[in-house]
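A.,

Following up on our hallway conversation. Structure tokens first:
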């Protein structure tokens, strides 16, 4: 049995389609990269790598506009807050917490429980183009993460089991604030 080699026109079409795919992929991620670079340059609370990875993880990010990136960031914040609340609930079920640590976890649970509808309200305001109101809500969620972490810091020798989650919530909130600000000022 003899194998046929692909025709030159098939090969050319294949190579052309690969190069278009590569070009589209790089131009689509170019918006994420340039947006994250601008946000990281403007805010010490946003790290470029975290920003790019977070936005690129969303399925719709490859074809999103700047407005779409804001939606993605706000959704990422909602997912983070919801997941952190669930994580805290699981931690509270464990035995052996010292009273102060258990109190801090309870406070954090309440903060994150309140943050879920707050981030939903931020999305509603954003969709209504009420950017200042959306920013107030996003800032409130960031404050919840900071307040949670600070509660542990106030205790002698109490180590927060939520440090990374609180830092992520804060940074995603900062990303959402920043990209909403770009849209509001017309720079995005």
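Then the amino acids I'd put at each of the 188 positions:
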């Amino acid at each position: 049995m003899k194998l046929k080699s692909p025709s030159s026109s098939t090969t050319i079409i294949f190579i052309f389609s690969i190069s278009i795919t590569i070009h589209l992929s790089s131009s689509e991620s170019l918006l994420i990269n340039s947006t994250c670079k601008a946000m990281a340059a403007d805010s010490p609370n946003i790290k470029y790598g975290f920003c790019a990875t977070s936005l690129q993880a969303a399925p719709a990010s490859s074809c999103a506009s700047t407005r779409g990136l804001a939606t993605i960031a706000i959704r990422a914040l909602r997912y983070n807050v919801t997941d952190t609340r669930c994580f805290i609930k699981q931690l509270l079920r464990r035995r052996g917490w010292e009273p102060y640590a258990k109190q801090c976890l309870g406070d954090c649970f309440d903060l994150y429980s309140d943050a879920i509808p707050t981030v939903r309200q931020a999305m509603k305001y954003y969709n209504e183009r009420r950017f200042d109101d959306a920013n107030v809500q996003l800032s409130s969620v960031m404050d919840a993460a900071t307040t949670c972490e600070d509660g542990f810091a106030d205790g002698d020798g109490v180590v927060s089991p939520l440090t990374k989650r609180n830092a992520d919530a804060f940074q995603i909130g900062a990303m959402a604030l920043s990209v909403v600000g770009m849209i509001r000022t017309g720079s995005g």
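The CA atoms of residues 115 and 141 lie 5 Å apart. Curious whether your intuition agrees with the design.

B.
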